[in-house]
Write a structure and sequence with these properties.
The structure holds 2 protein chains of 2 kinds.
Chain A: E1 5-7, E2 10-13, E3 19-24, E4 31-37, E5 44-50, E6 53-57, E7 64-68, E8 74-78, E9 87-94, E10 105-106, E11 110-114
Parallel strand pairs in A: 2-11
Antiparallel strand pairs in A: 1-3, 3-8, 4-5, 4-9, 5-6, 7-8, 9-10, 9-11
Chain B: E1 4-6, E2 11-14, E3 19-25, E4 32-38, E5 45-50, E6 54-58, E7 61-66, E8 71-76, E9 85-94, E10 97-100, E11 104-109
Parallel strand pairs in B: 2-11
Antiparallel strand pairs in B: 1-3, 3-8, 4-5, 4-9, 6-7, 7-8, 9-10, 9-11
The chains are: A mainly beta, B mainly beta.
């Protein structure tokens, strides 16, 4: 039973560029949430996708956008990268409406460095 | 006020001692609470969940919840050097939108 898989594991981009991160949820999960974790901080909620739509959004600018595909996999896109976007980006999957008693299952994350 | 607050630590305990980690949250309607362990450079790993007031034990770990005081804690008995990590408290606000604290760094000294 595959867990949550994220790609790539590491990425280096230049300011102003655009980046796409990918996530495949755990088998049986249909909801994908994305988090940004800066060094020394807890994960911050970016947005959540369910049924191919953005269901909830945190306090992040429109430069952060996403998509969910029919197979429940998801992408996170960040445009016009800033140095402050450097962080560990975590994908978390769960089943819809909190039926999972175990909370999130996190992927191993994508480490994004903006130079 | 942050939704979830934790003491950043570091909390240092000797091997074999009890480590006590605390967390407070601001949203009274929160229904479910989680503790995650995160090793440096790794993603968070779920270790405990708790939904009802009182204590929940799982091996060396005990989670305690007091909804009236909006307080969650994690006790680690017989602490081991391998328990050295950052412990994140997470609160499920609605529809699996989690708020995380900034984490407490635990150092277990041999």
């Amino acid at each position: 039973d595959a867990g949550v898989t994220q790609s790539p594991t590491h990425l280096i981009k230049t300011r102003g560029q655009q980046v796409t991160l990918r996530c495949s949820p755990k088998s049986g999960h249909d909801t994908v949430s994305w988090y940004q974790q800066a060094l020394g901080q807890g994960p911050q909620f970016i947005f959540q996708y369910y049924e191919e739509e953005e269901r909830q959004r945190g306090n992040f600018p429109d430069r952060f956008s996403g998509h969910q595909f029919p197979n429940y996999s998801s992408e996170l896109n960040v445009n016009a990268l800033l140095l402050g976007d450097s962080a560990l980006y975590l994908c978390a999957s769960s089943d819809s409406f909190g039926r999972s008693p175990y909370g999130y299952t996190f992927g191993s994350g994508t480490r994004l460095t903006v130079v | 006020q942050k939704e979830v607050e934790q003491n950043s630590g570091p909390l240092s305990v000797p091997e074999g001692a009890i480590a006590s980690l605390n967390c407070t949250y601001s949203d009274r309607v929160s229904q479910s609470f989680f503790w995650y362990r995160q090793y440096s450079g790794k993603s968070p790993e779920l270790i405990m969940s708790i939904y009802s007031n009182g204590d929940k034990e799982d091996g060396r770990f005990t989670a305690q919840l007091n909804k009236a005081s909006q307080y969650v804690s994690l006790l680690i008995r017989d602490s081991q050097p391998s328990d050295s990590a950052t412990y994140l408290c997470a609160v499920n606000i609605n529809f699996n939108k989690f708020y995380f604290g900034s984490g407490t760094k635990l150092n277990v000294k041999p």
